[in-house]
Amino acid sequence: MQGLAWSLSLVLMAGVALIFLRVVAGASQPGGDAGTIAAAGYRWRDRLFWVVIVAGVAISFATLRKWPIPGHAAAAATPDVIVRAVGHQWRWELDRDTVRPGELVEFEVTSADVNHGFAIYRPEKSRILAQAQAMPGYTNKLQVRFDEPGDYEVLCLEYCGLAHHAMRAVIKVRADS
Ligand SMILES: [Cu+2]
C-alpha cells in the first residue's frame, strides 16, 4: 500500500513538473494579440488580488476581538481569590466553585495525570471566556474577572481519553456569595 502511494505520488509529481515546464517554455514565446489580452487580464487579476488582500486585512482588523487573557501588567495584580483547579481523567477538581462578580480570581491550573485544557465558558452562547493548559508537574496561573453573575461552565479543551467530554464543572458567580 505504501509502495503504491509512493509510485502514484511520483507519477503525479512528474505530471505537475511537465505542466510547469510547458508553461515556462510557452512564456518565452511572443504572444501577439492573445498575449496583450492575457496581459490586460493579468492586470485586473493583480488589482483584484490587492483589493481582496486589503479588504481581508481591514475586515479582520475591524472584527477581531481582544484576547480575553489579561496582559502582563494585569497578570501581576494581586488576586482577591485563588482557586486551585486540578484536571483528572475525567473530572475537574476545584477547591471552591463560588466567587463574586467583579473580584479578581486567580486559577492555579494543573493536572494529576495527563494534559487537559481548562476552559471557562460564558453562560450565554457557550463562548469561551478564558482558558489555560492543565499540565502535570506545572501550575499555570489564569486570572479572570467575572463581570456578570451566572453559571460559568468549565470544560476540557484537550482530548484526554474516553470520557474527555464528561469533564465538566460549574463556577457559580453570585453577588451574595
Ligand atoms: Cu481532559
From TrEMBL:
Keywords annotated in UniProt: Copper, Electron transport, Membrane, Metal-binding, Transmembrane, Transmembrane helix, Transport
Gene Ontology BP annotations: ATP synthesis coupled electron transport
One GO CC term, this protein: membrane
Localisation: Membrane
Keyword Electron transport in annotation: yes
Catalyses which reaction(s): 4 Fe(II)-[cytochrome c] + O2 + 8 H(+)(in) = 4 Fe(III)-[cytochrome c] + 2 H2O + 4 H(+)(out)
Transmembrane segments: 48-64
Cytochrome oxidase subunit II copper A binding domain location: 78-177
CDD domains reported in the protein's UniProt record: CuRO_HCO_II_like_1
GO MF annotations in UniProt: copper ion binding; cytochrome-c oxidase activity
Coarse class of the protein's main subcellular location: membrane
Highest taxon listed in the record's lineage: Bacteria
Keyword Transmembrane attached: yes
UniProt family annotation: Belongs to the cytochrome c oxidase subunit 2 family.
UniProt name for this protein: Cytochrome c oxidase subunit 2
Organism: Solimonas aquatica
